[in-house]
Amino acid sequence: MHDAIPTVTLPGGEDVPSLGFGTWMMGEDKSVAKVEIDTIRLALDLGMTVIDTAEMYGDGGAERIVGTALKDRREDAFLVSKVLPWNASYSGTIKACHASLDRLGTDHLDLYLLHWRGEYPLDDTVAAMEELKVAGRIRAWGVSNFDIGDMEELLEVADGKNCSVNQVLYNLSRRGIEFDLLPWCQEHGIPVMAYSPIEQGRILDNSELIHIAKAYQATPAQVALAFLMEREGVIPIPKTSSPRRLQENREAVDLDISEDDWARLDAAFSPPARKVPLEML
């Protein structure tokens, strides 16, 4: 019997699971489409209902995969997509959102994000997000890859305080946000969605991480996910097309790591001692 997945409360008051599902690099190979679809549906069964995608992923292919997976289960998912910065003018954001909705086969998104900052003024993008909310096409909006200066600027824009999420690169080997951005988001009640939470597998051969995982009869990936879920207001969104790996990810919720072992992870993956520019993949 699994522990229940803890929840994170969004600024609008909605509680969502603190462990979600990413779809980066899905929808690129038709030969594995069925496996991808089945894995998304399994994520819903396991309670990992935050499904994150973007118009960029597979040039819309990931959205189509997600749409197929959710065809008869839309109400089970908290659906997130993103607009590319070069589409993020006022009219471009609205047009891009409608295109994403068409690919996803739904009439609304639960959360719509600006993928990263581009040349268009934040005022225009935010105004479009608010218009999409009024029209019922999105329930909430947020940003991605915004550093602390970007977030401070965003909150000065009209309606910028309605930002619900900041999605950034965050994992054991990329802890720069812990110096300033993460505390800032926590202070302002803006959850952080952590993409690439296991650094696309590159951290999993760390000897200390392996040693700690063995002590808990867990995998290194499970410990890495537990590390993020231990942080207030953080929602890791690991991507996998393997049902077995997905089950492993879900079981990370059950881990109860001791303070001594967290300290050992801190020694192996040092937290930042100074400001670090926001990293992106």
Key structural traits:
single chain; 281 residues; alpha/beta; eight-stranded parallel beta sheet; two-stranded antiparallel ribbon; 10 helices; 10 strands
SSE layout and pairing:
Blueprint: E1 7-9, E2 15-17, E3 21-22, H1 33-45, E4 50-52, H2 61-69, E5 78-83, H3 90-104, E6 111-114, H4 122-134, E7 141-144, H5 148-156, E8 166-169, H6 181-187, E9 192-195, H7 207-215, H8 220-229, E10 234-236, H9 243-251, H10 259-268
Parallel strand pairs: 3-4, 4-5, 5-6, 6-7, 7-8, 8-9, 9-10
Antiparallel strand pairs: 1-2
Helix pairs in contact: 1-2, 3-4, 7-8
3D architecture notes:
By secondary structure, the protein is an alpha/beta fold. The protein has ten helices and ten strands. It has helices spanning 33-45, 61-69, 90-104, 122-134, 148-156, 181-187, 207-215, 220-229, 243-251, 259-268, and strands at 7-9, 15-17, 21-22, 50-52, 78-83, 111-114, 141-144, 166-169, 192-195, 234-236. Helix 3 (90-104) packs across helix 4 and helix 7 (207-215) packs across helix 8. The protein is globular and about 55 Å long. The mean pLDDT is 97.
What coarse outline follows from CA principal-axis ratios? globular
* Overall mean confidence score, pLDDT: 97
Q: What are the segments in which pLDDT stays under 50 over at least 5 consecutive residues?
A: none
Largest sheet, if any? 8 strands, parallel
Number of helices: 10
